[in-house]
Amino acid sequence: MLLDLNLGFVILKSASMIQLFAKPVAEKIQKEVKQRVSRFKLNYGRLPKISVILVGDDTASRIYTQRKGELSSLLGMDHETISFPMDVNPELVRDRVRNLNDDPKIDGILIQRPLPKTFREEEVLYWISPDKDVDAFHPVHAGELLLGLPTFRPCTPAGVMELLSFYKISVSGRLVCVIGRSSIVGKPMAALLLQSDATVIQCHSKTQNLKELTRQASILVVAAGRPGLIDASYVQPGATVIDVGIHRTQDGRLTGDVRFDEVAQIASAMTPVPGGVGPMTLSILMQNTILAAERRENKNSSLLISAE
Ligand code: NAP
User: What CATH fold (topology level) applies to the domain 45-129?
Assistant: First the structure.
C-alpha cells in the first residue's frame, strides 16, 4: 500500500506491523532465573545476593533501585540498597565497594547512575570486581565482549538481542544500523550484533547523511537519547525498528527516540515505549546476578554471550 506522510515523498506501507513487547520475553527469562535461584539455594544453602549503591536522591534512580529490589525478591534472591548522600566523598563509596568485593555473601554489585559530578566515571568503572560486575560495565567485560570471549553481557543491549531472538528476527548476515555509541548501549550493542554475524553500521552525532545510512538497514536500533529523532523517512520499508530511548514528556508520559505512530506505518516490527526494551534491562540484570553467583560457587560454570 502506498502512503503519503507529508514527508515530501511516498513510501510503501507495511501490511501489518508486529509490536515486539518485552512482557513474554521478560517473563521467560525471569522464570528461568527463578528456577536457577531455587537450584542454587538447594546446592549451596544460601541465596544469591545483589548490592545496589545509590548516591543522592534522584527520583528516577530511587524508583529504578526499588524495582531492582522488588524483582530480586520476586525471583527469590536477596538484595540490599546502600544509600549515600549526594555530597558524599567518593573515596567513602569506593571503600564500601571494596568491602562488598571482598564479602563472600555478595554475588553482584551495581552502582546506580547517574552519579554526582564529584565522581570520575572512568575511575568508577574499575571499582567493582569483574566477577561481581553484573552491569558488565568494567573495562574487562568491555574488552572480552569485543574479543568475542565469554563474558557478562551489558543489560540493555543483551535485552535487545533477547527480544530479537524471541521474536525470531535473525540478525545473521543482515545490515543493522545502530544509532548511538555510548559505552553502556551503543558500543556493546554493535559488538553483540557483530558477534551474531550482523553487518553493523554504527552512527553518532557526527555522522553525516544519517538518513542515507539508516534507510539501508533492515534492522534499525536507535539509542540516541533524542526524543522523536527518527521519523518514517529514516526507515527502510519493512524494517525492524528497536527503540532504546526513553524520555518522560511534560505531561508525564513515556516516549522514545522513534516517532512510533509514523514509523509503524512502514516498519514490519517495532518495540513500543514503554513496554519494549525497558523491561528487558532488569531481567538481564537478574540473569547476570544468578550467573555471577553460580560462577563464584562453581568456577566451571559457563558464561552466556550469544543471543541467538
Ligand atoms: P548517551 O550516553 O547520551 O549516548 C547517546 C548517543 O547517541 C551518543 O553516542 C551520541 O553521539 C548519539 N547521538 C545523539 N544525538 C544524535 C543524533 N542526532 N544523531 C545521531 N546520533 C546521535 O545515551 P545512552 O546512555 O546510550 O542512552 C540512549 C537512550 O537510551 C537514552 O534515551 C536513555 O534514556 C535510553 N536508555 C534506556 C535503557 C533502557 O533500559 N531502556 C537503558 C539505557 C539507556 P556522540 O557519541 O557523538 O555524542
Answer: Rossmann fold (3.40.50)
